[in-house]
Amino acid sequence: MPSSELIAKSVSALDTLFPEIASGSRRRAHRRDMKELQKEIASIDSNRTLNDDEKAVFRYSSYRTLGHIDNLTDIIDGSVPLVHKPENVKGIDPDWVDDFQDKAGKCSNSDLQIIWSQILAGEIDEPGRFSKRFLSIVSTLEKSEAEIFKKVCSYSVITGHKEVYSFMSVDNSSGTFYNHKAIALSDLSCLFELGLMDTTVGMSVHILPKSKEILQTSKELVILYNSMDKEIEACPVNRTFSKVGEALASLCDLGCAPDFHRIVQEVLPEKIDYEFVPVKESNEKILRTDY
């Protein structure tokens, strides 16, 4: 739970980015007041210099603007407790803020708004973390597509090279289903089309002789041990995330599927020893050399 001091600093940081929206509940309430919208529309209707078609366009614009402000307000409010380094706000590119405001403001789905809140907080903590190309791809996500992505992430880990690797156990010879029908090939094709996964880049996990490889989920480490005198390919290439996909995966819970351990066991070759270690116990395990 963030301290009240950190919350106050986060609100101040957001106010510098969105002074027309994030400057307190009184202004937000004012923005949401339908009476203000009614006044604006009345002004449009009484304007004798506009024809009916032009008035319709301006009415639509007024409703849309109010909706965008409401969406941004919810997203900004959601980001407040997620910001850890509000002092870094000065490093954010103003062009990025404009692009974020344009794209995030169009999102009215509460589940997707959570993602936008995470993006905003992440960019404040680490300016430059999310590119404008990343914002463009996320802005095209449907709720169902976001659910597919989160499902794939639930079977994924971060490698020592900061790449995201997904454990995929093929269910049948045709390769149409993975992980006991939890993921369909069509699901992966959807992520390829969105630019979140990449079929052109291969990646596999190799372990040097008498060594170990440490993979990480959101809650635990997956430590792979090679006790042999030769290098072993522990995890063959399955599916590779694009750079945009890796950035989005950093906002998701990795390795949280109920049968994640079972799938890892199915994918790993028999000659690899492994163990799952909760993060709170990880320091001792990382220092181990008796493999």
Helix coverage percent of residues?
Answer: 40-55%
How is the quaternary structure best described?
A: single chain
Main beta sheet: 4 strands, antiparallel
- Name the overall outline: elongated
Task: Please provide the count of β strands.
Answer: 11
Q: Order of helices and strands, N to C?
A: HHHHHHHHEEEEHEEEEEEHHEH
- CA-atom Rg in angstroms: 24 Å
**How much of the sequence is in beta strands?**
5-15%
Please give the alpha-carbon distance between the first and last residues. Answer: 39 Å
Taking pLDDT < 50 over at least 5 consecutive residues as the criterion, the unreliable ranges are: 284-291
Number of helical regions: 12
Mean pLDDT: 83
| Class computed from helices, strands and strand pairing | alpha+beta
Strand order of the largest sheet: 1-2-10-5
Task: Give a structural overview.
With 291 residues, the protein is α+β, with helices and mostly antiparallel strands. It is built from 12 helices and 11 strands. The chain has helices at residues 4-17, 25-32, 34-45, 52-79, 94-104, 110-125, 132-139, 143-153, 185-194, 243-249, 260-267, 282-286, and strands spanning 156-158, 164-166, 177-178, 183-184, 197-198, 205-207, 211-216, 220-226, 232-235, 239-241, 273-278. The strands form 4 sheets. The chain has a 4-stranded antiparallel β-sheet with strand order 1-2-10-5. A 3-stranded antiparallel β-sheet has the order 7-8-11. A hairpin with a 3-residue loop joins β7 (211-216) and β8 (220-226). α5 (94-104) packs parallel to α7 (132-139). The model is unreliable at 284-291 (pLDDT under 50).
